[in-house]
Request: fold
Amino acid sequence: MSAQTDLITADTGVTALNTRSLGSLTLRRLFKQRNALLGMAILLALVIVAALAPLIAPYDPEQVLIGIEPVERRENPCIHLFGCPADKPKHIMGIDGNFRDQFSRIIYGTRISLFIGFTTIGLAVIVGTAIGAFSGYVGGWADNLIMRLMDVILAFPSFLLAIFIITVLGRGLQNALYAIAVVNIPVFARLVRASVLSLKEQEFVSASRALGAGHFRLLFVRIFPNATPPLIVQSSLSIASAILEAAALSFLGLGAQPPTPEWGTMLGSERNQVFTSPHLVFFPGIAIMITVLAFNLLGDGLRDAMDPRLAQISNKK
Amino acid sequence: MRSYLVRRFLMAIPVILGILIVTFTIARLIPGDPCHSALGEHATEAACASFAARMGLDKPILVQLGIYMENILFRGDFGDSIRYSRPVSTLLIERLPVTLELGTAAILLAVLVGVPAGILSAVRRNSGVDVATMMGANIGVSMPVYWLGLMLAFVFAVYLKDTPFALPPSGRMTAGLLPAPFYEVWGWNLARGSFAYLIADFISNFAVFNSIITAQWEVLKDALAHLILPAVALSTIPLAIIARITRSSMLEVLGREYVRAARAKGVAERNVVMKHAFRNALLPVVTVIGLQTGTLFAGAVLTESIFGFSGVGRALFDAITGRDYPIIQAFTVVIAIGYVFINLVVDISYAFLDPRIKLS
Amino acid sequence: MTSVAPYIAKPTTGKANSPAQLLDVKGLKTYFFTEDGVVTAVDGVSFSVFPGEIFGLVGESGCGKSVTSLSIMRLVDPPGEVVEGEVLLEGEDLRLKTASGMTKVRGRQISMIFQQPKSSLNPVFPIGDQIVEVFDIHENLDKEQAWQRAVDLLRMVGIPDPERKASAYPHELSGGQAQRVMIAMALALKPKLIIADEPTTALDVTIQAQILDLLRKLSSQTGTSVILITHDLGIIAEMADRVAVMYAGQIVEQTDTRTLFANPLHPYTQGLHASVPVLGQVKDRLEVIPGSVPNLIGVSGHCRFAPRCRAREQYGLSICWDVEPSLISVDPGHTVRCWLYEDHEGHKPPLKKR
Reply:
């Protein structure tokens, strides 16, 4: 049946147009990217706030205002615009249980949360990448053993494992950081290992090897750059959950200790006052939410932007 | 099919052993001698001696690990709580039902709201409903659960006080309300401490279930009212994640050729979505429901301590505060093993959802 | 854009004596409103299908033939939209039907067979159930009766051991078997028209012939008309009574199959011919049509084939770049869209017969 020659290839172009409906995908991508843009904007604002905290915050975050200003313990927010008497000092988020200006504490808290997010996940990425790259590159029983260990760590709900690790290490912000880093390692190890495995056999890597490239050179020059995009996406999403978990640990009294202006700690120490002074619970929670939201939006947007299927369709045009 | 199930069961065993090894190892890393970390700082010499003998502390480390595993797996013996001075296992019998009931309510809520929201979002993609749902989901996963819990408690107990919407902010039940356990109502005569008693006691601690089977409607009403806020708080994150995964899975499936083929043979749009597409979209949704159920129980630590729920989460919280290591260790193990089993159930459900799995 | 007067050819094969056309597509336009612009995937397509005939629609990928079929079925997904034209099934315009009215047409009066049989069957339901569903939607049959008829259908399309196979899942079938199941499903209610969109492209060459035979046999038995969409002229030669050649969203030539092979008029059709190897005929090399299908954004205002047309260069025609040709009748039952045959102010068609 030589007449069956595929002179004209299958009708893939139009099929793709129909089933995946090109335009709606583009629309969706735009919609997602709008999310990513929003995430980036919030993140940028947070970084600026963190950097300029001393300029923005009207008070030192740990300064007790008793005797300095006529303030009451856990006083409600005083905003002149909303009818607070002009002779009272302005405290837009009110006063906390230790006579401190909550707004200043929230502002400084930005520094701590961003620091937590970047250091924990930075550590997890470095260690996880090393483990995953080693495991995937050497293969064999070592690979098997390492990956089973990662499976076991993933078998725990991560927050619970973090609690358990801290009870052993002892409470405190630094140990909380280690705990969160540890529970985040397996995700990155798996991710990098998968990339290494899939890239190891590809032609350009074989070609480099044939040309005499050394193991490290191969890993760093050839394999890592290809594993980077999924790492970036996962990092952004992991930072979001790391900030959330760190705040929860601090809330439980396991992380940052008072008087550190950490949002979770602030929430935890005023939790019993929620019925009488809800502002002391409300604002730290909102701050956590906005920060976590920024990283989540960014991570989602990046993932969609990097999705190979989407990329393929945009190339077609 | 059967071999698939058997294989999945067997695969769970090394994971459970791994969990025990990891918890054992971490526990041994606790600074100080194991006796004082397990029995508390004020343990007597004599108590320490008997503890050392029981745990085989004089024996090689691997033998100790063996004893540890044997105690947990074959005797259900997790040691004694320092704070409560009684076996951790009895605490589990008393408290696990409370947490299970809360967790079930939360996951039901998450599924019943999240799945329809995800489907609606997918069917009307890029509509106002879709944008709003997805923004809501993004906010949902970004919210600290304990903060939401506190805010809900404030709104429903203080702000809406004296309205029909007021809800109790704490406790499993109104103080003083003592529900009769079903075995007493039914006149069963169980010897205290017997195995049957333990089982019956365990079951009767499911407050909602117990009050339904014994027709104690006032108790049921009270128990449900106390359940709503914590369940809502606990369900937020799973709900958001389930809605998102349902949406993306549905979108993927709705673009498939068999969906178009179904339309081409005259299937009404409603059935195209609910029958042809949804059945196929279920797999990732079920996976996520399983994963979220696991994380839910970890989230119970925070939710229960906020709402004064005397479940395992609260016990764990108290244990953290009181450095009650046996409880922390035991509950970590129990929840992790529960997590493994939930994932097992999820994997097994695949075989029923997707005919292609039976072959492989 | 020149609007095209619907041209209705009388069937030249004696098969159908009934003069009334079953399906009449007039000036159909389906556009995709993408961010990059409006894709004119189907741009003024008109053709008719007579009862009992096999009508071939041939063209390269992306020429709009699949979109044409989906437009008839009203299954074009957004951002695609049928913007103009009529689709008359026995005189009734399908475009005016309600959504629920349309579901009654699908599967019952017009059914479809797709290119990828295995992915067109729902993986989580047994194939028997998927056939039963057709009866379930359109006829009130009780479960057992419907199942029995599904088994009968499977036997009819040549599935071995149909009683047992009816409970099989799609992944347990070969591609050829899956396409037989699709055909069984399409024929379940003896529809008036089947649209077969590249029904054999995904199948092995040996299976292709079997499936085509089956399709031809069953459609002639039931008197069902078929719109056969393909890129393969070989299939057209074997199967079709009449053919329309599509290029870039338009029909460029339409006639009966014999004439199309004996006397192709459009340079594109001629190019398609030359690029198909013929058994026993030794050529130094197969001809290829230079270039590829244009991207269908903003292509109006000139002949869409002009960029790839050798005849245009050969005859030195400039009008091809300035004015869009229309579909004109050159012989009874033979239409073509080309300036080689069409008059225009200041343009003398070089090949016009007279």
